[in-house]
Amino acid sequence: MNKNREQYFSFLFFVSLLLLFKIQPLINFSHHELVTTTIGAVILFLMVKISKNWISGWVQRLCEKWNIRLAYLYVIALAIYFLT
Questions:
Q1: Global pTM?
Q2: Considering only CA atoms, which of 48, 68, 39 is closest in space to residue 6?
C-alpha cells in the first residue's frame, strides 16, 4: 500500500472505531466482558479488512475527484458520530 493510500486507510480505521463504539450496546448482550470484547474485535477486524481491500481506494478517488481534504472527512465523521 502506498503512502498516499495509507492516509485514507487511517481515516477508514478511525471510522471503523467510531462505528464499533456506536454498535457496542448492540453486541453487549452478554454479561461476560471477554465475549463482548472478542465480538467487538472480530467486527473491527472485518471492517478493517474490507476497508483495506477496496474502500480506501474508493475514498481516495472520491476525494481527488471532488477535491475534498482528508481533514474535512475527519470532521464530518466526528459530527455524524456525535449527532447520532
A1: 0.78
A2: 48
